[in-house]
Structures are given as structure tokens and as C-alpha cells.
Amino acid sequence: MTDLHNSLHAIYDEVSRRNPGEVEFHQAVYEVLDSLGPVVDKHPDYVDSAVIRRLCEPERQIIFRVPWVDDAGAVQINRGFRVEFNSALGPFKGGLRFHPSVYLGIVKFLGFEQIFKNALTGLPIGGGKGGSDFDPKGRSDGEVMRFCQSFMTELYRHIGEYTDVPAGDTGVGTREIGYLFGQYKRITNRYESGALTGKGLTWGGAQVRTEATGYGTVFFVDEILRSNGQSFDGKRVVVSGSGNVATYAIDKIHQLGGTVLACSDSGGYVVDERGIDLDLLKEIKEIRRGRIAEYAEARPETARFVGDGSVWDVECDVALPCATQNELDYDAALRLTKSGCRVVAEGANMPCTPQAVKLFAESGVIFAPGKAANAGGVATSALEMQQNASRDSWSFDDTEQRLAAIMRRIHERCIATADEYDRPGNYVVGANIAGFTRVADAMLALGVV
Ligand code: NDP
């Protein structure tokens, strides 16, 4: 890691001291502060008015017990979280993650990132995140429903279309949003569609929301390739994960002429030399809720499953980490760089370690951080809120074009801001500074609140 600007060092030390043990949160804060040196040189008022210190402290943090009864009749207890990080630009907005690894530090890292990502979209949304250490894997629909109902029985007091608008994330898809929305509607006696996004199409959801994060990431990479006189046509791509983001990234890459050779889950990865068959992947992952190993069993002629390696061992031109935080470390980055990978874009949140990002910069690999590259999901959630507020619904094509235009504008903002601060082509600097200045200026305008 590089050394932070003096005034930012003190802020980082304070964050580490006040939030002990929350290593992912520290990492996310450091990553943003690391870009802000030239900004505070130019605008010392951001430090003097404590905007940066205030940004590092969530406006509100809620932790609650989630008791529920499993299919065997046993009482289970999980922990629920909602971190309402910053509402200078609009209601808190960010997903819910259900995964056994969830604790306060993960929710705070995600909520912190979300502030700048949401600012970067140019839309009126603040930043927040939530979730639980509940593991939906292997649970029946009835168990997932009872868990979601119990979770919402506490969460409903804190959310609403003008307050805080949760959505999906890892482990939370349309099924979970349905159970959460059903319970919210029942408790509040209001059909308040704008209180949650990621809803099903027949009950207030928006076209393209399911596809948005994966499609948006690929649109962003397409902008990168175009600005270098290239396209996806003929490119070999590796995508990690096989959940929501990965699936729709694969879909769009194939539409644009690239070939996705490999994808993964936490049990291993599959390589398919003919390109990942999206219908088969969806059948296994979305319908059967199965494991990626089943893909190779279904296509033994071209596909193989590797249970004990890293998906980043597969040679490619473009790599899209779309699974989880810190999944792509220095060694993986070195293998990718040596085998000719030229572009890495984060479909997931913070999947590349700081050491990997540094290596990409030193090796001339173009690197797009999640704040910019995966912002299409939350942007389309904001479009869902817009449609809910006006009781309208737009077509798939119309919404997809809006998503593509948003990703184009985010790309332009990153490039323009990186140029302004003499770091041409540096998407990390561009995204962090462009997102930060939008939210910081709003905070200055709103006073000390
Ligand atoms: P899903 O739950 O749909 O899928 C996650 C995928 O990642 C699964 O295939 C999972 O495999 C895999 N995975 C998890 N941990 C590991 C690991 N350690 N090694 C390999 N694979 C792993 O989540 P999403 O697709 O929604 O989210 C993925 C990432 O994208 C997260 O970082 C999320 O925060 C981010 N994101 C999501 C958005 C959205 O709209 N959904 C928006 C913006 C960012 P397994 O099933 O085995 O656990």
C-alpha cells in the first residue's frame, strides 16, 4: 500500500481504532482515502469541515435478532444488520446480503462503497447496506420464507421509499425480495412498491433489474475496449461466480461476440472450450439451485470441472471477478498478467486485493473498480424506484438503453476526472474522486448534520 496524505492518515487511524476487527471496512476506507490526496490539496475545506470524517461514520447502524423455526421445528437465531451510511444525495440505497460470512465489518465495507458508487451514477440515491449471517443454501422455500418474514418484522421500522430502500445482493434474489416485500406490505398495510427494489415483474419490479449488474459491467468494459479501439468480438473471457452478476455478465458477453471460457462457485470452476452454455448454467443455478460441478457432468465432451484450483489459472484476454470480496489476490493477478490478460473489471464488490490492483497498475492492465463497473445494478434499482413513483413501467429495450447510457456516462466521468487529476486512464482515481466530490459537495451544502 502507498502512504496516505498526512491529513488522511489521521482519519484512517481513527477509523481503524474506532472500528476494531472490521478489516474489510478498513480496506474499503483505505482504498478511497488513497485516491483523495490531490483532492484535499485542492479543497482543504473537505478536511476542515470534517466531511471525510463524517463520511466514514455511518448515520445509523441497526443490529437485530432474527429468530425463526426450521422445518424440523427447532428454533434458529440469526443476526440482522442494516447500516444506513449516508443520505446526503437521497434515501439510503443498497442491497441485503444473506451469507454465513456476514458480520458488521462486511456490511460496513459494502455500505461505504455504496455511497460513492451511488454518487457516481448521478442519480438521487444515498448509500446503505444490510444483511444477515443466515445461509439460504440447502434451506427449503418454507424456511427461507419464515426467515425473511422474521427479518422484515424488525427491518420494516427503518425502511421506506423516502428513508431507506433495500435490494438484493449475494443470497438475496427475487424469491427473498418477494417474501420480504410480502411481510412489509402485511405489517404496514401499504402497497409501497418503492420500499424495496429487485421485485418480480408482476408485482412492481422493473425490466432489466435482474440482468442489470452483469449487463452493466459488460457495458462498462465495452466502453473501455472501444476507447482503446477494440471490442468484445473474439475476446476470451473468464468470469468468476455463477450467481446473478456472473450469469448476466456471461449472457451479455456472448451477445457482444466474446466467449466466456470459465466460471465458478465456491466449490470450484468449470472450463468449457466451446463457451459456457448459458441455458444449461441457468437450469443448474437458477432452477435446480445446484452446484457448478453439475455443469461438467452435463457436458462431458467439452467441459471439465476443477475442484482444487483457481478460476484465474484459465488464460483470457478479459477477467471479470463476479463472486465475492478479496477473491483475486496478488498470485492470481500475476498469473493473469503473465498469461496476457489486458482488462480486469470488478463485477463483485472489492474482489481484487489491494496488492492485485497495484500489480495491474504496474503491469499496464486496465483495471475497472466495482464502484464504477458494477454500478448498473443500483442504477437500475433507481430506475425501478422512478417507475414505482410514477406508477409506470418501461419496456425491456427502453430500460436496457437507459442502463447502457448510464454506464457510458459513468465511464466518461471516470475518464474526465482521472484526466483532471493528471492520472489519465486510472479508473480507480477517476471513480473515487468523482463519487467523493459529488457526495462531499452535497454534505457541505446540507450543513453539519
Ligand atoms: P449470488 O449469491 O447470486 O452469487 C454469488 C456467486 O459467487 C455464487 O456463484 C457463489 O458460489 C460465488 N461465490 C461466493 N463466494 C465464493 C468464493 N469464495 N469463491 C468462489 N465463488 C464464490 O450473488 P450476486 O451475483 O448477486 O453477487 C456477487 C457479487 O456482486 C457480490 O460481491 C455482490 O456484492 C456484488 N454485487 C451484486 C449486485 C447485484 O445486483 N446482485 C450489485 C452490485 C454488486 P456459491 O453458491 O458456492 O456460494
From TrEMBL:
Record-listed substrate binding positions: K93, Q114, K117, G168, S381
Binding site for NAD(+): T213, N244
Annotated GO biological process: glutamate biosynthetic process
This protein's record includes keyword NAD: yes
Active site: K129
Residues annotated as signal peptide: none
Listed SMART domains: ELFV_dehydrog
Gene Ontology annotations for the cellular component aspect, listed alphabetically: cytosol
Occurrences of domain Glutamate/phenylalanine/leucine/valine/L-tryptophan dehydrogenase C-terminal (ranges): 206-447
Superkingdom of origin: Bacteria
Marked site (Important for catalysis) residue numbers: D169
GO MF annotations in UniProt: glutamate dehydrogenase (NADP+) activity; nucleotide binding
UniProt cross-references to PROSITE patterns, sorted A to Z: GLFV_DEHYDROGENASE (PS00074)
Family stated for the protein in its record: Belongs to the Glu/Leu/Phe/Val dehydrogenases family.
Name of the protein in question: Glutamate dehydrogenase
Classification lineage: Bacteria, Bacillati, Actinomycetota, Actinomycetes, Mycobacteriales
